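Q: I'm writing a short explainer about Ornithine carbamoyltransferase for a general audience and would like to include a description of its predicted shape. Could you first generate the structure from this sequence?
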Amino acid sequence: MPPRHFLTLADIDAETLETLLRRAAELRALHHDGSLHEPLRGRVLGMIFEKSSTRTRVSFEAGMAQLGGSALFLSPRDTQLGRGEPIEDTARVLSGMVDAVMIRTFDHSTVERFAGASRVPVINGLTDDHHPCQLLADLQTWQAHRGELQGRTVAWMGDGNNMCRSWMQAAEMMDFRLAIGAPSAYAPEDLADYPNSRHETDPQAAVEGADLVVTDVWASMGMEDERQTRLEDFAAYQVNEALMAAAGEQALFMHCLPAHRGEEVTADVIDGPRSVVWEEAENRLHAQKALLEWLVTPRR
Ligand code: CP
Ligand code: NVA
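A: Of course. Here's the predicted structure. Afterward I'll give you a sentence or two in plain language.
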């Protein structure tokens, strides 16, 4: 039987998503108790990073250790990937040696090609198009504070990037509305495929009635040369106290981090009482442990 992969949120069904989120909350409680839980003893996760990372690397590496296994950090600088070894050949070799592989890269097609040649589960640790592991943590954080997302409204302030697309997928799976606040040129190209999502050029209209306001860096990794243009184009979309006031008192604030205070968000919002960003970051650990338990344990 082919392995199951987690390349986008849509690779799991809504029921599995709920199961993983429940398990993530249980694993968080176990971790806070100091209890040991080591179902992946002897298992190894290979981690390929073609872009920088703090949270993803540490949460997967610490998560595997806490589950009783271990993780290998593989950079193109010191593997043959950086010298042109085909991704499929790398997948065939690694999947004979490790129990799962996490990849952070540029083109989404790279993780698809790797998964197509892999005998073990492949996890997307961020591509230009998706960041599904972050959504597991974000949804877990939402549930801990506010319960169900069904019927709620989330405002995404920023371009149609990897995080935005994972939020669009989540809106379909969990049946909530997503309002995307961005200049016209930055709306997601595939918006029409996501009926629960809409685009607003007016930032106030995007956040009106939102239960959660989310933002992210305006120039994602790989877009560094667009940074100056984007700073100007997105200036009116900054998440500040005035925008949070337009959302209403009920609204929480999330950011996948790293954050740029004074650009996409002001310090008073991200460091203020409605921000749940530190819990959101910690939940990367718990949500991915739930994912690893589910992907690695049953099929081997
Ligand atoms: N949010 C997130 O993925 O952070 P890193 O880039 O530090 O992994
Ligand atoms: N959209 C950002 C997310 C970083 C975790 C990026 O791709 O750089």
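A: For your explainer, you could say: The two ends are 11 Å apart (CA to CA).
Q: Perfect, that's easy to follow.
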